[in-house]
Amino acid sequence: MEPLEQMEPLEQIVQRLSAERKVRALAKVGSLGTPSAWAGSTPTLLSFERGLSAPETGFPLRATEAGVVRLRFPYDSLEAWQDWEALQATGPLGLLAHCRPVYDPGGTLGRLQRTLYALTPLQLADFRAGLIRQAEIRLTAAQQLLSAGSGTAAQLLVLADVRRLAVECLYPALLSWRHLWAAGWPDGGVRLPHLWRAQVGLAFPRAVDHLDQLYGFGGEREARRVLLATRGLNLVQAEKRARLAVQVGYFDGAVRFVRDAAAQVWRGDLERWPYLSGARQDKLVTLLGAEISPLGPVAAELCRELIEDVRAGR
Fold this sequence. Notes:
The protein is an alpha+beta fold. The chain contains 15 helices and five strands.
């Protein structure tokens, strides 16, 4: 065995945790150490432990040690997720599908992964239909914002909500046609458009084109405009990740990442839009891509077309 002091921090932590009785399974996650690694890859561990108390924000608990991110789940969840119905309802499917077990003495994590990759076409179709139903419910809720008013606030809120449901529901549903799972990599979000194009761009060009349209991509020029607009808006971590992505050429990924982060952090500002200063409005317009993206009813209609593309697999 390699002396502890000669190991990388990730391997040291794996060895230490493997000896703790409460830790029942460990896996590496993220692109580090894979052919998809890049400058932003982060050493990350997924751990399943006994005796974890549920936090108010829900699992996973997140901790960082010696630069290694650790995502902690209760072992009881891993056991419950052996049932497919429970797994698709509450499990982090992307993380579980793409993780690489390094300690799994009971074989529980390995069995779960085999379940994911052994689903029948009928099970995948049911899974896809469930995601599409969720998307339709969320789209209806977003459209109700327009019935309350057609001002700028409603236009921007609908755009933000449509983007989020597209990423959280329709993108995974589209992947299910190819028995693929949305990347659960902690560093994957900043490269997401590049990933969905690589995974299903050739098979489903209409759906991927609609995903792209929702974000108003514009290559390097738009990415640099967005990064400039983040200043003073408390988006330090998102800006840091996006800036790194721009440096290596993931321009659209950086834009998608910042647009969604801004919509989440500053949703309250969008709701009280008329009361914001002109300078703040201008920054948010740039961050969200309001000048080059579909707004309000146009965004909703584009989302409706995307739903039909995903349903039909086109």
